């Protein structure tokens, strides 16, 4: 398996993968719109996993400046096999370290992808017990939506 940064010619593949691997998501929960992919392709921390048979997964991440340090925040990691997820996370950890961003954070939804927690542990990421509190503003918020924030 080869893990590499993705570019604009890969966008359609990423969109197809997300829809195939996460078919239950509402449209507003998808993270592979053109604007998002253009942003993540420049982040230096987003990867595509592929081999000679094609694409098998991807990871979307961005550095978030905390004022005194950077944290690389993973907002989407999907793959068609647990070992591909682990490989993507390992590629991200290396890119974060190489960029002197010594913190990596993953927003994981175990119901969405039960293999993600296993892959995160295999890549050295540990759960810290915190929960995400979210409020969606505008018309989605008026409907009571909270899904799709960061993930």
Overview of the molecule:
- Helices cover 33% and strands 23% of the residues.
- The model has no long low-confidence stretch (mean pLDDT 90).
- The chain has a 5-stranded mixed beta sheet, with helices on both faces.
- The protein starts with a strand and ends in a 9-residue tail after the last helix.
- By secondary structure, the protein is of the alpha+beta class.
- The chain has one domain (2-142): Gcn5-related N-acetyltransferase (GNAT) (Aminopeptidase), CATH 3.40.630.30.
Q: Could you write a compact summary of the structure shown?
A:
The chain is an alpha+beta fold and 151 residues long. The chain has one domain: Gcn5-related N-acetyltransferase (GNAT) (Aminopeptidase), CATH 3.40.630.30.
Which terms would index this structure?
5 helices, 5-stranded mixed beta sheet, about 35% helix, Aminopeptidase, alpha+beta, single chain, about 150 residues
State the helicity in percent bands: 25-40%
- The ordered string of helix (H) and strand (E) elements is EHHEEEHEHH
Identify the CATH class: Alpha Beta
Largest sheet: 5 strands, mixed
Cα distance, first to last residue?
Answer: 25 Å
Global outline: globular
CATH superfamily: Gcn5-related N-acetyltransferase (GNAT)
Number of strands: 5
Rg over CA atoms, rounded to whole Å, is 15 Å
- The assigned CATH architecture is 3-Layer(aba) Sandwich
The low-confidence runs, each spanning 5 or more residues with pLDDT under 50, are none
CATH topology: Aminopeptidase
Structural class: alpha+beta
Strand order of the largest sheet: 1-2-3-4-5
